[in-house]
Amino acid sequence: MQREERRIMDSEKAKKEWEAATSARVEGAPVDHARLIRRLEKPQGRVDVVLDTDTYNEIDDQYALAYLIRSDDKLNLKAIYAAPFFNDKSSGPADGMEKSYQEIMNVLTLLEREDLKEMVYRGSTEYMPSESEPVISDAAKDLAERAMQYTEEHPLYVIAIGAITNVSSALVMKPEIKDRIVLIWLGGNAVNWPHNREFNLFQDVAGARVVFGCGVPLVQLPCMGVVSAFTTSGPELEHHLRGKNKLCDYLIDVTTEEARVCYGGSTWTRPIWDVTAVAWLLDGDFEEDCLIHSPIPEYDDRYAFDNNRHFIKYVYHIKRDNLFADLFEKLKK
Q1: Domain ranges of the chain
Q2: In angstroms, how far apart are the furthest CA atoms of the chain?
């Protein structure tokens, strides 16, 4: 049997097993815009969250994971999902996911939070083959099941900072959860950017089209043109974090090495992209956002637009100094 035929058969078997264990599908209904807008308001008080992260891909996920855990006065972490990625740090999406899983464990060790390791789940080993075909994984199954414990009034907040495959697969597997979660995703570029070829989005355009199109309450943090302004430098990291704890020293070292590989020179700044997705849920004065009609990610690295579509929250400005001050203070704990 050819490898591709075997992959298709295994995928079909997994989907049938999942469907047999879950409730009947619900077809998409027209979006109630007023209800959706209410659900996109920032929550008051402490909320339950899960984090979907390609932690080994760059150096910013490690900051975001630590920042979330150190913000436990506001964010009650329920699960961590390892997301796939494919670049020069991995041999393919499955390898990227596994390396991310191991890096999550490494960061939890540095944080001395061994208690959280039991809530880490391996995610997708490939990207969605189409907009109607989920990728079955422990992460996607956990999200689909866990979200059913929540309600529209008291939702589960999903912070996604990698390719969206785990989340979009859960939404296809169990469409009901769109009424029980709010999704905050760092993905895509600004709507006025010349193109939309952004790493988190272009790896799984089918998955991106699911989350932008299904009516789930979505907060988008665009990369180029918005979050790209959230940069730090070697001297700033050394000044604020060096010697504070094992985690801080590790973050400085991996960031400096990443900058050396990417930029080469002694003068550099580096975006710490993923922290901004966590920050949207916090109470500080960190970001500005607005409502826009949900754009349509196309397969040619562009957005399409339709003003009849539902609304999403769109972050258009990061208050860089405010957010770094809070980040540094929490990392030093």
Answers
A1: 43-331
A2: 59
pLDDT digits (tens, 9 = 90+) for 300-317: 999 999 999 999 999 999
How many helices, marked H, and strands, marked E, lie in the chain?
12, 12
Q: Which of 307, 232, 240 is nearest to 275 (CA)?
A: 232
Whole-model pTM: value is 0.92
* C-alpha closest to that of 214 among 183, 181, 175: 175
Structure token pair of residue 61: 């996920």
Summarised one tens digit per residue, pLDDT across range 227-270 is 999 999 999 999 999 999 999 999 999 999 998 888 877 789 99
Strand-pair category, 181-186 with 156-160: parallel
Q: Compute the half-sphere exposure of residue 121: CA atoms within 13 Å on the CB side of its CA.
A: 22
Q: How far apart are CA 175 and CA 19, in angstroms?
A: 12
201 token code pair = 């989005």
Question: What is the chain's Cα-based Rg?
Answer: 19
Site of tokens 């699960």: 79
Neighbours of 160 (CB within 10 A): 29
Phi, psi of 195 (to 5 degrees): -150, 170
- One-character DSSP codes across 150-216: --SSSPEEEEE-S-SHHHHHHHHH-GGGGGTEEEEEE-S--TTSS----HHHHTTHHHHHHHHHS--
- Residue 313 CA to residue 303 CA, distance in Å, equals 16
DSSP 230: -
Q: Which two tokens stand for residue 167?
A: 């989340």
The answer to whether the CB of 77 falls within 8 A of the CB of 51 is yes
Instruction: Look at strands 296-297 and 231-233 and give their pairing.
Output: unpaired
CATH number of 43-331: 3.90.245.10
* Cβ atoms of 230 and 318 closer than 8 Å: yes
CA separation for the pair 60, 201 (Å, rounded): 17
Q: Residue 228 in 3-state DSSP? A: helix
What letter would DSSP give residue 219?
E
Q: Which amino acid is at 328?
A: F
